[in-house]
Design goal:
The protein folds into two domains: 233 residues, 3-Layer(aba) Sandwich (Aminopeptidase); 88 residues, Elongation Factor Tu (Ef-tu), domain 3 (Beta Barrel). The strands form three sheets. It has an eight-stranded mixed beta sheet. α1 runs antiparallel to α4 and α4 packs across α8. It has eight helices and 17 strands.
């Protein structure tokens, strides 16, 4: 299953080569013009008549990096992206060095009676235990700056509609873009489409900023995930209740014309959707929206539980409905939003 391959592939920010090769292999089946730019983004161009549209999803995932190795062989870490430290305790990790992978477990010293058990651990209090000495680690190539990857995990919960695994943020978006490329190959799209698979979103939305230089889109859609809030009292982003259409996030106001068009398309075809207004986080869409004097931009997302942890949870219906909605958008683009 393609989604499984995307989720299990390694691709921490700055080291996206493994996931990029998988996406490149898939996109070449459906789009002739697929290139890697100098920064590492993958850009596929499906020529067509009508407005030029940019769809963007990021390839990279959160991870860790070796910050230091103490005399006991304990590896101290630095975050790549934002990670919830509490969720890392007990997580299996892999450190790729030279021609081997060194396996380890993220651990925390035991809480003594003199410490407050309510104190939430921070990344500084976590270590990676590999069972090796400092000398062994150094000899095998582990050094300051070595990447520490979350071990591959993917599967389903009790219901096969609930997929779980690492890097759902944003391999779900990558999967959606590949499926869209597959679908529009079978009909003449009313758009000139650029599919962008960006790098280094988790550390600063950098891939989006560089990818836009050689593209002149009339409008754009970010395809990403968002945090599910269905365990709260006033839920607005529930998994299994449709893709989200962003109205506002922490740093971006979505284009109201594109949002209105998406809502109308969803209503016509009975596709469930949820509107997102949030105060936390943003996406690659921000750097697209403020490029080149301003580009009308919104985000179509999939709500997931356990965002930015080693194992997220998403609903396949939301993923498939996001694909349906975006396919409709490419078939029937909002020409009115160009005026």
């Amino acid at each position: 299953m393609l989604l499984n391959r995307l989720i299990t592939a390694m691709g921490t920010s700055g080291k996206e080569h493994e996931i990029r090769e998988i996406i490149l292999e898939e996109m070449k089946k459906y789009v002739k013009d697929v290139k890697k730019d100098k920064f590492g983004n993958l850009i596929a161009h499906k020529k067509g008549k009508g407005p030029t549209v940019l769809l963007i999803a990021h390839m990279d995932e959160i991870g860790l990096m070796v910050k230091s190795i103490d005399d006991k062989g304990c590896i101290h870490c630095s975050e790549i992206g934002i990670i919830e430290p509490l969720s890392l305790i007990g997580t299996r990790v892999v450190i790729p060095v030279k021609k081997e992978h060194i396996h380890g477990i993220i651990t925390l010293k035991e809480i003594s009676n003199n410490e407050d058990p309510d104190n939430v651990p921070k990344i500084d209090s976590l270590i990676v235990d590999t069972g090796l000495t400092k000398k062994d680690l150094l000899e095998r190539g582990v050094e300051i700056g070595s990447y520490i990857n979350i071990q591959k995990t993917v599967g389903f919960l009790g219901s096969k509609k609930f997929v779980c695994g690492k890097a759902l943020d944003d391999r779900i978006g990558c999967y959606i873009l590949i499926e869209l490329a597959k679908r529009i190959r079978k009909f003449n799209s009313n758009c000139n489409v650029y599919f962008v698979f960006s790098v280094q979103e988790e550390v600063g939305l950098y891939g989006a900023k560089t990818s836009i230089y050689n593209i002149k889109p009339d409008w754009a859609v970010g395809v990403d995930v968002t945090v599910a809030d269905d365990f709260t009292g006033n839920a607005t982003r529930r998994i299994g209740h449709g893709p989200t259409i962003t109205v506002k996030d922490a740093e971006m106001l979505a284009d109201p014309c594109i949002d209105s068009w998406l809502k109308d398309l969803a209503k016509k075809k009975n596709i469930p959707y949820q509107l997102e207004v949030s105060e936390g986080g943003t996406t690659d869409a921000l750097n697209i929206a403020i490029a080149k004097g301003g580009i009308p931009t919104t985000v179509v997302g999939v709500a997931i539980r356990n965002l930015h942890t080693p194992v997220g949870i998403a609903h396949m219906d939301d993923i498939n409905n996001a694909i349906r909605l975006l396919e409709l958008l490419l078939r029937d683009p909002p020409m009115v939003c160009l005026t």
